UniProtKB/TrEMBL annotation, chains A, B:
<dbReference type="GO" id="GO:0003677">
    <property type="term" value="F:DNA binding"/>
</dbReference>
<dbReference type="InterPro" id="IPR008920">
    <property type="entry name" value="TF_FadR/GntR_C"/>
</dbReference>
<feature type="domain" description="GntR C-terminal">
    <location>
        <begin position="87"/>
        <end position="210"/>
    </location>
</feature>
<dbReference type="InterPro" id="IPR000524">
    <property type="entry name" value="Tscrpt_reg_HTH_GntR"/>
</dbReference>
<dbReference type="Pfam" id="PF00392">
    <property type="entry name" value="GntR"/>
</dbReference>
<protein>
    <submittedName>
        <fullName>Transcriptional regulator, GntR family</fullName>
    </submittedName>
</protein>
<dbReference type="InterPro" id="IPR011711">
    <property type="entry name" value="GntR_C"/>
</dbReference>
<dbReference type="InterPro" id="IPR036390">
    <property type="entry name" value="WH_DNA-bd_sf"/>
</dbReference>
<keyword id="KW-0804">Transcription</keyword>
<dbReference type="InterPro" id="IPR036388">
    <property type="entry name" value="WH-like_DNA-bd_sf"/>
</dbReference>
<keyword id="KW-0805">Transcription regulation</keyword>
<keyword id="KW-0238">DNA-binding</keyword>
<dbReference type="Pfam" id="PF07729">
    <property type="entry name" value="FCD"/>
</dbReference>
<dbReference type="GO" id="GO:0003700">
    <property type="term" value="F:DNA-binding transcription factor activity"/>
</dbReference>
Amino acid sequence: MITPTPRQSDSPSAAHDRVYRALRTRIMHGEFPPGQAMTLRGIGKMFDVSMTPSREAVRRLVADGGLNLSASGRVSTPELSNERIEELAAIRALIEPELASRALPRAHMALIERLQTINGTIAELVAKHDDVGYIRANLEFHRTLYLRAQAPAMLALTETVWLQLGPTMRALYSRLNRTEVPHNHRLIVAALRAGDEPGLRLAVRSDVTQGLRMLAV
Amino acid sequence: MITPTPRQSDSPSAAHDRVYRALRTRIMHGEFPPGQAMTLRGIGKMFDVSMTPSREAVRRLVADGGLNLSASGRVSTPELSNERIEELAAIRALIEPELASRALPRAHMALIERLQTINGTIAELVAKHDDVGYIRANLEFHRTLYLRAQAPAMLALTETVWLQLGPTMRALYSRLNRTEVPHNHRLIVAALRAGDEPGLRLAVRSDVTQGLRMLAV
DNA sequence: ATGGGCGCAATGTGATCACAAATCGCACAA
DNA sequence: TTGTGCGATTTGTGATCACATTGCGCCCAT
């Protein structure tokens, strides 16, 4: 702001990168509704940086679909058409079973217990009607499993799909009154225990597809 | 450079966007070897813009994997490990058959003839040992087919995989002496003619996998 | 009260500058 | 000849500024 050269340049974390990661996480977790408008100066003020780093963060987020850029350069979270939502769901249904399948041979007891703990957290958040928390915990469940697949490119790609769906998921889940942990999460854990690869693929695919299917209404 | 406000702001094409698209195309088509270093000022000079637009273009390209950013902020084309190459090939093998399958019911004679024309072009480029041209025509073959799938998100995702593989493909194909059009391209066209969906999936998967398989050497 | 038009505020874009870190080269010593 | 340290140049980062355009609000006329 007034300080001419305050922060050390880049070693710990460049400003633009800090803005990027923070914004990305918040979008992915559904903290913004679809179509939410933002301004470069506003983002800059939000993180106490100038326009330059916030512009760079926005560029990256636009590149992976987390933000939309209007023809005049205005920034906003995406408003997805039904076709686009179904397509993104199809991508998830294609990749995530593959990730789960690759994780299966490496899924030891400690991992399964961690997944069950997350399911417990989800149950609490459902009871509290904490939608943002629910989305975050739900994604954490999937990410925890997929990390075992040792497939970073596939995981990164999946996360950009989650990012694109973030605002829509928030809008979707907020008009949905969940009462319990998704049944498919329990099926996933059970299939992991049993080493049942086809069952695991099916459960993951169902879990991914079910939430987005009610958009067709 | 010296001009204070020369170009009209953004309507036709913002400078950063022009730089982004040009650079992205060149990387995807394999015009740079893996590990090729670049500088923001150099990119700016290359397109006759200042550092600001080239920085933004680089940010976007880093976001979708077309460029790597070292810890000190240095920019270079990615040098992929064998594991990463195999993973990207697996992603292609997962998504591209799906795209082809979705394109199949919409593939009329005009499309098939366009694909055959591209195959003819590929034959010429193979004869001329034009690697960059070969990669470009090869990707054009796939993109022409996939455009019919009416699945823009899937296609965009596939293109980012191509982008990541660009420099590696160039390095790979240049130490490979092709003598003819890939057999699988002809199989793809034949399966389209016959309306043979399983055969199409198999041909696409084989075509995608074969080129990258010899990396395991 | 409503609709249209004008003007100003807000916003994105790109150039430039100052600065810090990193990298490279060269000289000197072992 | 080879390894090491120092200094200059290169390079990325972030702030700021000028400017064009967009869009919003307000005012006036009907």
